[in-house]
Amino acid sequence: MQQLWHTVHYDLIAKAYIFIVDDQNFEVNANLLSKALQITPEVSDHPFTTPRLENEIISFINKLGYSGHLTNISGIRTKTPHASNTLGNGVRMLILLSSSEKTSGSRLIPESPKAHRVTDKMAPRTGPLLHFILGFVLLASIKAEAATKKYQFDVQVSNVSRLCHAKPIVTVNGMFPGPTIYAREGDRVIINVTNHAQYNMSIHWHGLKQYANGWADGPAYITQCPIQTGSNYVYDFNVTGQRGTLWWHAHILWLRATVYGAIVILPQQGTPYPFPKPDKEHVLVFGEWWHNDVEEIVKQGNAMGLPPNMSDAHTINGKPGPLFPCSEKHTFAMEVDQGKKYLLRIANAALNDELFFAIAGHNMTVVEIDAVYTKPFTTSAILIAPGQTTNVLVYANSAPGRYFMAVRPFQDVPIPVDNKTATAIIQYKGIPDTVLPSLPQLPSPNDTTFALSYNNKLRSLNTPNFPANVPLNVDRKLLFTVGLGKSVCPTCINGTRLSASLNNITFVMPQTGLLEAHYKNKKGVFTPDFPDKPPKAFNYTGAPLTANLFTTHGTRLSKIAFNSTVELVIQDTNLLSVESHPFHLHGYNFFVVGTGVGNFDPAKDPAKYNLVDPPERNTVGVPTGGWSAIRFRADNPGVWFFHCHLELHTGWGLKTAFVVEDGPGKDQAVRPPPKDLPPC
């Protein structure tokens, strides 16, 4: 069980407690000066996710530890008309509890994501209550103070059973997938990671920008050395200017096969979603499962110079579903009420597969990608690459029954993949488990037409509240070619092994953190001379190239001036084979201003760019045999990893990093490293 800790300050000189309850979370304010303690439980477990009757509210308040007994509520005001005995959406309740004694102090209280209870141990009783004042105000009328959310992550080995047999896997807090992190925009998040496993560990908070704070970003040997067995490291960061669904995962070896979980960032108090408010929310994280130990499988593949064995199943929330053997009990199920709407927060944590996702009998409305709101559009299926997140609204308006949700790979090249379908179930309330679910109609595995059409529908909102600040002028233009190749390997079959490269450079991982080397000006760790374009132009997507496949090797980084605007064109090539590549940039969002099939034409293609409302992402899917153009402003100083999010290709060297120089301002330089930064 994950454990969260919050500091409750109590200062009763003001002679008051304030309890604030709304439909998404509750807060305990310790005094009239609003020293806020914000507690964000799992939304699905919270007692106020739907309107409640007066007696339910009274019961809930009495359970908060009030020493007397509350019997009625009066003076209800709501944002919109509701029945007089109902707590409606869009309101918050203030309970003012005054005390006759003066005291002050603070203490730590634990928060379980399954139970939230304020007791006398949390806020000590200081005398009889003088009176109650009950009222309701609009959400926008009170601004909550930013909270600090603290999590304890214990990395440990746990036995987990899937596909008819158990095996030891690396987990966080014994959970698979790991715990979901909840926060609000503006919160501070502190996560203490203690490593009890036999592997070194680092964790990346995928999509969080970590402004000037790369020390909290997580990729091993890029922004930190790994957390060694028996050691710990505290990731301390602010959630600034972001809201939506992201995710976290191990960022060393292939350990993210089992070490991953979701991040849910709720909007600031009083800020509604720019789409119809859901009645309930659910997290869906897609993954992969191997029968055998993943690290051993990778070692075997590397020893032979060949790709490791593909996974044996895909999973939804760690469960493959009943189409796999011994998996009836390993099926995620979601109960819905007829007529209600649901927000599904989806993350693709699979290591090597882009995935199609669909729900039998239901369409989906896409409202967010990579924690950025989009212009809503309705679709029967979505495509999601490793590293990406997507939020969809689903209306439970079909005939009551049981329906499969299903994922399977997008197979864009003629190479073997785990093409089995993972399933979960949507079950309407009152429908028995004996009713057989129906399967959705997924796109065919090689449906590139659907893939291109789906991605072309993605658009930023570009409204006054959520503008698309696309750089219109470019200071630095880059062209990175993506290719597979070969490297010398005396112990491998035929004396070579497969490799991958950007601009014909296979990245060599250092033995110390690149950010620390940059910050301390250490010599000999990397060179800031990654080329802006490939060494030689050629017909990138023509006939397959099978000669001159050997790449150069180096720890070469691209140096970028602070606050400069950058355009990067990522070009797939037919070195060995064309293939789609999901590229992730740490520390930034970017705008995908253009995508095309074939070779990028610098004379003609920029005229087709979307500079008005392009999708804003942190992970872009470069199409098979095509290109993607992204733009961003380099306003986040530090060393930021840029890599393919197919773990197979990352391990082969398909990666580099940007060194963004410090700016002239006081807060435009990389912060000093934390004292507990792990040593190498």
Write a concise keyword list for the protein shown above.
globular; 6% helix; Immunoglobulin-like; 680 residues; 41 strands; mainly beta; six-stranded mixed sheet; disordered N terminus
Instruction: Count helical runs.
Output: 5
- Terminus-to-terminus distance: 30 Å
Helix content: under 10%
- How large a portion of the residues is in β-strands, by DSSP E? 35-45%
Q: How would a crystallographer describe the biggest sheet? A: 6 strands, mixed
**Could you list the spans in which at least 5 consecutive residues all have pLDDT below 50?**
1-54, 56-143
Task: Count the beta strands.
Answer: 41
Overall mean pLDDT score?
83
How many discrete domains?
Answer: 4
Q: Give the CATH H-level superfamily of the largest domain.
A: Cupredoxins -  blue copper proteins
Radius of gyration: 26 Å
Protein name: Laccase
Subcellular location: Secreted, Extracellular space, Apoplast
Cofactor: Cu cation
Keywords: Apoplast, Copper, Glycoprotein, Lignin degradation, Metal-binding, Oxidoreductase, Repeat, Secreted
